[in-house]
Amino acid sequence: MDSLPDAIVQYILSHTNNARDVAICSCVSKRWKESMPYIRSLYFPRNSLDNSNGEDPDFIVGRMISSIVWLEELVVYCPFSSAGLASWLSSSSHSLQHLELRMDNLTEKQARLEGPSKIDCIDSARALESLRLWGVLMTQPPKWRTFKNLHTLAICGARLKDNALSGAIKACPNLIHLSLLGCDGLRSVTIELQQLRECRLDFYGMGNCFLTLSCPKLQMLDVQGCSWIRATQTNCLTNLSISNSAGRVYKVDFGKLGVLESLSIKGVQWCWDAITTILQCASEVKQLFMKVEFTGDFDTLQPFPEVDLVDFFNCHPKLQTFEIHGAMFAALCQKNSLKSVDSRFAIPYLEEVIITVRSPLNAEQKISTLESLVKHGNNLKRMVIKILQMKNCHSSADDFFEEICRFRYLNHKIVRIE
User: For residue 31, what pLDDT is reported?
Assistant: First the structure.
């Protein structure tokens, strides 16, 4: 590197972002030390200041930040104080675009001890384009003015109150990407963002959160932990995933899903009305994943009513990939419709089917459904049958498995058993 021009050396070293590496590079030579102020990104790992030799960690971080001419990205996972954060952001606010912080203040006691809120200190970074926060307690709306340039907001592993989250979102009107992952304490969430395109929501707790969305440009929505979901402006939605592992999905209210390509519904219990509503809205879907154990309202767990195979595929004519699990597959039956079905009936675009079977009950119906998928799936290229947690003590388990093996033998070119 001694033969390279200064500009090239500076460009190469500008890709160094780990704080420890930056400190080491500064000690290599005067030339390298003079290049360090031109780095654009600075990353402090969790244990980066463990050997600070008694120096104040806030001061060490602040000294490195203040020495950089144009810092665009700052990632801090090591412990810090609100005073330290305020000082760092003040010195780099003119250039800082990307900020990621591990807050470590999930308890009320920690929040009180830190003095002025770390969350409120972020307000001084007016040029931010992306903000990611880990381990944050937010019980009050943050004292933020409007972040006009902020397009990405991610809050992970947090305890939030409804009004606090509402205040944070209100201060970021131009968000394109929003992620709330592993967030606890929320009961009713309303998101109104005109530019939002991708939204990932993962709520801890009882799985009974109410969610209302008004985002006309939304293209991708992934929701976990909500029992009531309302999103009426969905003309641009192409990918939708709804799951609830802790509670029940009582109701979903979606507008027209005319461009939806991928739909995933998962959970222990969904009300049947919620399932039928979302399937009716998603008539143009190409990839469909369904894994729900029970239906029934409120505390009543009930099996699924029979779903006519012909009607189902006639209502979803564009299906290409279809994955269905356990009880939901057991509900997918012929109801004798194939005996008198129009000879032109076909599943025209279906290419891949993945089926999980967990019980030998109703074996004849299940085998018949598998045969129908192969017979009428004109373009079917691959079928995977997963035998999961089969109860071998059941008298019909062996017979059913033999039938599955026979079916696989007769259709060995496309059928695989796992």
Answer: 84
Amino acid identity, position 381: K
- Distance (Å, rounded) from C-alpha 43 to C-alpha 20? 9
Instruction: Name beta bridge partners: 387.
Output: 357
pTM value is: 0.90
pLDDT value, residue 126: 93
Beta-carbon neighbour count of residue 360 at 10 Å?
Answer: 21
Integer Rg of the chain from CA: 28
Both tokens assigned to 144: 């933020």
| Distance between CA atoms of residues 303 and 120, nearest Å | 50
Residues (pLDDT < 70) of the chain are 52, 54, 105-116, 334-342, 389-395
Give the Cβ contact number of residue 340 at 10 Å.
Answer: 7
DSSP letters spanning 272-305: HHHHHHHHHHTTT-SEEEEEEEEB-STT--BPPP
Q: Is-contact 161 168, C-beta < 8 A?
A: no
Is the distance from CB of 79 to CB of 111 less than 8 angstroms?
no
* DSSP at 206: S
The pLDDT of residue 410: 95
Q: Other C-beta atoms within 10 Å of 59: how many?
A: 12
Tokens representing residue 275 in the block: 């399932």
What DSSP letter does each residue of 1-57 carry, written as one string? -TTS-HHHHHHHHTT--BHHHHHHHHTT-HHHHHHGGG--EEEE-TTTTTT-TT--H
- Cα-based distances in Å from 329 to 196, 239, 270, 303, 377: 35, 22, 15, 11, 17
Q: Which two tokens stand for residue 268?
A: 């222990």
Q: What is the pLDDT of residue 104?
A: 77
- pLDDT computed for residue 299 by the predictor: 76
Distance CA 181, CA 407 (A): 43
Helical H segments across 145-267, by residue range:
162-170
